[in-house]
Each structure stands twice: as C-alpha cells, then as structure tokens.
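Thread amino acids onto this structure.
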C-alpha cells in the first residue's frame, strides 16, 4: 500500500485491502471449514478461544460472538494459561487458537497440555506450514497478501481476516444448531437487541391473569372480570378455551348507548366475533405493529387450534421500551 498524504485516499486503500482479504477467504473455504463446524457442533464442553496481542483481542470478540449465538465459549489468555489458567480447559472442550505467524511462543507452550487433555484444536493462522497449524486437528488459513498499512507491518488486514473467519464459523454453527430469534432473546434479556427479539409469549398475561368468560355469562359478570384483570377487555371462550370473541371497554360503551337493559345481555351476544389475534412465538414488535395498524390496545394470543393462551397489552410493550 502506498503512502498518499491524503487521509481519504489512505482510508479507501485500507478498506480495499481489507475487503480483498476477506474476499479471498470466501474463495478458499473448503472441507476444512466443514470439519471445524462439525467439531464445534459436537463439542460437549466449551469452546476456549485463545490468542495473544491483536489476535487476543480478536479471540475475545469471537468467544463473545459464539457465546451470544448459542455456543458456550470463553477467552483464555495464553500467557496466563501457562501460569495456572490452563485449568480452564477440561476434557470435552475445544480450543480455538489464533496466531497470524503460527509461532507465538505462548500458544506453542500450550500444545503439549492440550494434546494430553485430548481436546480438539482448531487454529487460525496465516502460515499453513507453521508449528501451530501442523499440530492442529483443523487449520483454517487466514493469510493475507499484505497488511493495510504502507509498512506492511501493523496487524490490520490479518486481524480483519481472523475476525471474519470467526464470524463465519459462529454463524454457520448457529444455523446448524437451528438457533432462532427466541433463542437470541433468551440470551440477550437486556438492551435494545434483546427487546427487539422479545416474543409475545414472554410479554403476555396468561394463566390466572387471563380474563375469560363463557358465552352465556351475563354482561355484568364480564364487567366484573374485566375490572378484576385490569386489561380493559375479556376473552369469551368455549369450555375447551377455544376463542369465540372478545368484549372491550369500547364495546361496553357502545352497548350502553344502543341496547336497553345491557347488563342482562349475554357475552356471546355482544362480543366481537373476529378479534385480532397473534401467536405466542411471534415477536413483540409484530404485536406492536398489528396494534398500531388496527388502532387497538390488546391482542389475544392463541395457539394453533385457536385456543386462548394469553393477552398482550400495549402497556406491556411500553414497559419493554419497544415504544
């Protein structure tokens, strides 16, 4: 890479060099990558990711990505490992070691003990003939033709390649596991990402909190249930909990204005027979969209057979900070 004296030109060169490095990785993926995925998939323990210096920083991120996508993982500092932290690695684990040179002394010092424990070793290096690569169960080549700096020294393209390969492994593994949005939500209960993938089933009122009346209940009884459950509505269900309709505060106001002796009417006669519903595995954001679209404040949650499972209310979504 040439010195330009122009920050914008330099930045463009850096991005071009790094994009070519990642593109080259995609072109050379083969059965070794598939073996690495299989080893990680069948791992009975944790994935212990290790690396030193800039590779160590990338290793921390890869460990975090694996853990957040359904694969138990942790970072182990190789220098600390040879002074006692190697106890982090136990039979059944898999070690993922990252070293551009493949000759990092602190990593090589771990090889004998890793082999003694009988754990699988996957390595990322830029030197397929290096000591670390040749002693690995699977080696993935993350070599680059040049670093993205004029001196060709500062770890840039090589660390980007390592990071991209780690992401490729993590996502391929998550897909093989069938990792879903609800799985992601359970691992990210806090923060904006977790809230975005919150499912309706986690936000709904259910069990004793679900307002239910039979179709032959009097309207006065429905009002009592609505007041007790405090959701501004009640479901009207058959004995098997199959949803027949709903009665809302709005329905009651209209009933009072148009029908003589409204409290003596039956729930089945005054209910809305085609209420908006949603499944418990749907995202809370989908529930919010449906409420906004229909200008309503609650949705009945039903199963595949049309049985009422719960009610999700607009106020519940406010508490999750989706709004």
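Threaded sequence (323 positions):
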């Amino acid at each position: 890479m040439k010195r330009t004296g122009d920050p914008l030109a330099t930045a463009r060169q850096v991005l071009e060099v790094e994009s070519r490095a990642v593109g080259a990785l995609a072109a050379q993926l083969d059965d070794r990558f598939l073996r690495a995925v299989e080893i990680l998939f069948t791992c009975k323990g944790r994935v212990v990711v290790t690396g030193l210096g800039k590779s160590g920083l990338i290793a921390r991120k890869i460990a975090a990505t694996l853990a957040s996508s359904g694969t138990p993982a942790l970072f182990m500092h190789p220098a600390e490992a040879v002074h006692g932290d190697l106890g982090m690695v136990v039979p059944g684990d898999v070690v993922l070691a990252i070293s551009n040179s493949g000759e990092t002394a602190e990593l090589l010092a771990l090889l004998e003990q890793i082999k003694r424990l009988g754990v699988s070793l996957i390595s990322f290096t830029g030197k397929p003939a290096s000591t670390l690569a040749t002693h690995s169960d699977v080696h993935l080549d993350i070599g680059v033709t040049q670093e993205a700096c004029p001196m060709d020294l500062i770890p840039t393209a090589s660390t980007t390649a390592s990071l991209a390969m780690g992401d490729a492994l993590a996502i391929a593994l998550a897909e093989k596991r069938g990792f879903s949005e609800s799985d992601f939500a359970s691992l990210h209960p806090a923060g904006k990402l977790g809230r975005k993938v919150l499912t309706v089933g986690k936000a709904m009122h259910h069990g004793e909190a679900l307002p239910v009346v039979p179709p032959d209940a009097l309207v006065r009884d429905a009002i009592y249930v609505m007041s007790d459950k405090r959701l501004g509505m009640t479901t009207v269900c058959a004995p098997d909990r199959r949803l027949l309709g709903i009665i809302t505060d709005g329905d009651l106001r209209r009933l009072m204005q148009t029908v003589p002796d409204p409290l003596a009417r039956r729930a089945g006669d005054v209910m809305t027979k085609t209420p908006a519903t949603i499944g418990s595995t749907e995202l809370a954001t989908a529930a919010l969209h449906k409420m906004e679209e229909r200008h309503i404040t609650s949705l009945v949650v039903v199963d595949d057979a049309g049985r009422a499972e719960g009610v999700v209310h607009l106020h519940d979504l406010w508490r999750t900070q989706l709004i």
